[in-house]
């Protein structure tokens, strides 16, 4: 492989951005993948030499992250999302139709085409999503497969499909997205604090626009205030992390080891890979400066030496947008040396992921950012607050959480703690996807609307002629709720009331009381056309694919559950499989290094637990009828 | 040794006092409670990935505000149990810690972890070399399910992959404990093994054409808890349950690596390291494992010879003694002899007025377990009085003395005189008596050849570079007709001294030696870890060994 | 302690011993007319019951593959140390190369074998099976030392349906792009 001087310069520039050479691994491998197209022995050895590691470590990363390839790929690389929200709208069928039209089997390369399934692309509200090279296409219905292939052909002929270097400026035309849904802001219900600029007609991502709306004013004030005050404000606000774990942010900052003498790092977790979650995408693509201001305010408050944004590899244009926004901010003195003219300096480095869900776990992210396979680390001793990135104290926060920081600093922690339910202050951005009329992201004060109001009033209710059947409230890892389930909630005065699923208030304590959690607020809606067994098979396949493979229960258990649910979906279920599934899930829970174990086990536990009869009925029908027995009015196959 | 701090812990309801600073797994092992584990290794960093050592751990509960200890109604301390099971290998003991290893939760956890490991594990036990010493087999028998619930197809991964001609890698059997990866990174200092792919498809691999060789690679075979990494030289040779195990010391260098010698019916099948935390930890070099191959049949000196004609051993020994009586004797000793033999040799040299010559065998010191001195017992020669200074690399001095006529007889033990400065002319000028185990140019030309035992065929003690006296046991019987070294030397000595040794066993020589050499007092029974002796009287001598694993070098 | 046995006094007829002679002859005569159970061995053979433990043999599977993989469990469990196995490797160009291990030598000393069947119980491959041969002889000890070739010849084929070593496709082909 010939190493062009351009590639060499690019690699050197990337290495210079990180405190340790090895950290540049993800970005250097992306550069080689872009320029060379695939990794052969020369490419692996070049990367190993540049990063000063052994070739086996580069090969380990190459085979771990799906976006890096050891074989050449076609000029037109089609990736169809197969996770639940897109699958329910027909993406599996779409992939088969495309495969027939272009004559390329799924998962292989033929002629100029490479066609494969990928896991959740983070575009759930506008599914089915298809990514072709670095362009994202929304709402590609399976009936439109032929037209879609023709369109691709036309674009390819006109040279519009060619990937551009990620070093280049963001694609002006944007992805072939439908515009961000911004329906009628229901003033009583929606309260767009974080999303204040999303979907506005006359908004763009430039820094001038952001500053004209008053942006970076909070940062200017923040760098003049003492750090203890800022951290105290964050604690008073009681804002919980918005990435899915819901850990109070102020407390996370408090646990930081400030006495060790080691540099402190801030990492923004923009690896939005939880199926059903599509809220951070909008912030990055349409309002990046809000995130950057949040990062700089946080960096100052915790006295970080450097800040990183770890963005998932599939958000290619998002990476370009962020890099451009950061360079604009650097020009204006908001990032880099002497932030807003003060003595504090901190730069932001953007690192791309390469197709791995477990990079969303904070220690998995740290392992990946440090240059290696994204293996979560055992806690103790590797608590990020004490031994995080490069074994230095680190804070890892979600994109949405960081956007709250300037708001807390400007309004004050007490004021923010009064927004919505005081036990879970602030707003939640609910990304609704699946089988509703108007999927999209809706920002609501916590607790001030119910699930039913969200799904019926804001989202327009179920599709024509259908009824809601089940809802997964917080991204696929949370336990599923049946639509006609009843729960007992405690009132403030100590008494209890019985409510139905649609009456659950949209805040963390209520969902917890109902046996599930808000997680990342990615609501996946299923209606009466969905076969629950296939829905679970779809999710199990996701977890089996994304398990990192470090600890025994998750590594083997997820693949076992996936094989069982696939076997039932294909018509070979046995009655003992139902209890077996539940037992496997129980054996994984609580025994793993990271929360992916629980995330993989809860869907199975809750799905089998609440829809047990459906499983037995399906298996019995298979055994009498023979062969596969699907739900009769299932709209699309989910597996 | 200073007293280590101790903490009080409660294990399964019983109170114990254990050393502080260790993890729960080691502490429980010390009090006799077994906690099963795969990925933990005492000499490597904690991975915590196998999840087999999960136990219930609780600490005494304290009041959030005041920090005072809380008590139950009946006065006992209230214990705040961790909500999830914790790994025993990664948790350090603390004062008041409560540990439960036999509850239903822990038992169910172990059973499920074993079930998960066996899902995709191939049914290779009949052909796998690890059978009989396989942790997966042992734990499944003790803690596992009696039947399998898995009816799907198993994963298929590369099998019998040759790694550097030394190791056979079978990825299907691998349980992804990462011991091999950590060992190469931490002990050898380079990544040789690595994980590739993801999830349940993860495999162990080496990079083809990479810099994968090392003289310590075979330690991963000892470390691998299953049969994923097996030694190619031992492949399909013998089952471990047939093998007799004896304690040995590696003769490759003065590092004094503790070994285990596995043999059956007089044949040595393999050599593995024996744990000694003061000397070699749990590791040894690859080259040290094959030292026993030096003594294979082709090279072996089997028959006593006088002037190249075979003869009876008794006759050869008596001819020996006649020639020694003629006087002007030089003795060439060697660094492979045991302390006991050196002691008798010292007495013999005093009795017949012979000078003792020795030769140094030096090589490159690799800073780990192969030192610059490639003999295991050079220091023994100092302690038994055979040497005053560090010996030179050849015997030119002896050659001169033969030329000048000062030396008429050379009793040479094991050293190849021809390669060390003596010529065939010297062999005509003086009587050369060669006693050793291997055929070489010296034995071909010597006047008398007496076959002796190899270090695997006798017991004895050696002193390593740390001045540690360590003992090794006999592993196999010598081929018929080969002399017992100590008895041979004692019979020579018996010609000179009036006191005869009624008991010619090594033990009696050892007792005599220990009583006569004050430096070795207390070494009559050294125990498995050996005994350090006072080496201050040799402080002026420059030894060639440098800083290495568990060795600080000369101070 | 001594036990005193009571001796019955014989009646005067019994003292002539005639009744005893008659009852003895009666038993003989009774048996004279019963059907004979004697088998004229070796012209006539008895039928061996199921599970009869005759001489151990090595068997092949239904595809003609030699089943023994020289795991040496039979050698270990044999109470009289009659079995001696030397394991070996199957060469890479054999059609069974994926099984990897097969005995390079397998001998059973029939003079030592006690036909206990422990080897058959211990074998994980169902490769050593005790069949029906019970009459073994030889003119020297070495003739009774059976080697691998003769054991397989005596064994024949075991028609069992479990194809443990049959290679199956990798799961990933069934599960789509993973």
What do you see in this structure?
The complex is a heterotrimer of chains A (about 650), B (about 550) and C (about 180). Chain A is an alpha/beta fold and about 650 residues long. Chain A has five domains: about 60 residues, Arc Repressor Mutant, subunit A; about 80 residues, Glutaredoxin (3-Layer(aba) Sandwich); about 210 residues, NADH-ubiquinone oxidoreductase 51kDa subunit (Rossmann fold, 3-Layer(aba) Sandwich); about 100 residues, Ubiquitin-like (UB roll), CATH 3.10.20.600; about 90 residues, NADH-ubiquinone oxidoreductase 51kDa subunit, iron-sulphur binding domain (de novo design (two linked rop proteins)). Chain B is elongated, with a radius of gyration of 28 Å. In chain B, strand 20, helix 12 and strand 21 form a beta-alpha-beta unit. Chain C has six helices and five strands, in the order H-H-E-H-E-E-H-E-E-H-H. In chain C, the strands form two sheets. Chain C has a three-stranded antiparallel β-sheet with strand order 2-3-5. Chain C has a two-stranded antiparallel sheet with strand order 1-4. Chains B and C meet through loops of B and helix 3, strand 2 and helix 6 of C.
- Overall pLDDT of chain B, averaged? 91
**In CATH terms, what is the fold-level topology of the domain at 56-155 in chain C?**
Alpha-Beta Plaits
Derived from helix and strand composition plus strand pairing, the structural class of chain B reads alpha+beta
- Rg over C-alpha atoms of chain B, rounded to the nearest angstrom: 28 Å
Strand content of chain C: 5-15%
- The tally of domains of chain B stands at 3
Fraction in beta strands of chain B: 15-25%
TL;DR of this structure?
The complex is a heterotrimer of chains A (639), B (555) and C (178). Helix content of chain A is 40%, strand content 13%.
Q: Characteristics of this structure?
A:
heterotrimer, A: 639 residues, alpha/beta, Arc Repressor Mutant, subunit A, Glutaredoxin, Rossmann fold, 5 domains, five-stranded mixed sheet, 24 helices, 16 strands, 40% helix, B: 555 residues, alpha+beta, Ubiquitin-like (UB roll), Alpha-Beta Plaits, 3 domains, six-stranded mixed sheet, 24 strands
